## 1
Amino acid sequence: MALPAAHASQGDPVTLAGLVFETAAGLRRAAVPAVERDYGLPRQSLDVLVRLARSDGGRLRMSDLAVQTRLTPSGLTRAVDRLCEAGLASRQVCPDDRRGYFASLTGAGRTRMEAAMSCHHDALGEVLGALDPSERDQLAALLRRLLEQLRSSSRDTSGA
């Protein structure tokens, strides 16, 4: 069944979401292969390490890291285990909650990320160069607003 033309407009929620999904997938295809090839960081490892590198003190609670990377708790545990084995991350017990853990970037992890982020930045910058600086700022503001809406909706439905 074809949708009426009015539903195919650029403001249609399905069209907008499709554009966001397709763009996100394209950004990954443009940026991740070079980092994986040149720095030995597969997509999942890169996702975890980027979030650690950009967080206060280079560490995050495992539960927060799972939400940010969209990994299941067991998937995140396996990913962090691989990073720990490679010496790029470590895991520590949370002092205020012995059931909780932090994942932390090690010195070797920070060094690898500094080098890899230059490559990642350049690859993404090439694609995002299609937008002028004010358009990139506007896009960032809009995406942050959508993300906050999603986070708020998630909290509302989880009973938190």
Note: The mean pLDDT is 87.
## 2
Amino acid sequence: MTWPAPTRRAHETFCTTEGWQQVRNARGQAASHHVTHELQLHDGRILRTRISHPVNRETYGPAMSSHILQEQLDVDQATFWACAQDGKKPDRGMPEPPPQALPVNLVYLLLTQVRLSEAEVAAMSKEEAIARMQQYWTTGS
């Protein structure tokens, strides 16, 4: 499929839709010549991209477009346009929690209030963990 050249506005829309954070320059002020965005990924990487002022409908050339998509946004054309035009966020490989995963607040309470070991908590089902917390709240033990 043939895709149009990305525009500065589509680039900005992509970043906004995916939840990139606008960052400031080294002095804590907004940059005057670029809008800079960062995205923290779950694997620890931080992606960074810059959009020249003004954010408008000007298109990027083929080399610049390729660089932005591959090196800065880490997506292909189809993914870029699905996000910029249709609001579909890229799949960044975010791990899905198991369906019966214990809520983090419950784990924290079991460890700190009930004083169970991590191994004991890890071996509990959700129902067992809730029952154990309820027992602690009603009896204090």
Note: The chain has two domains: 8-86, 104-139.
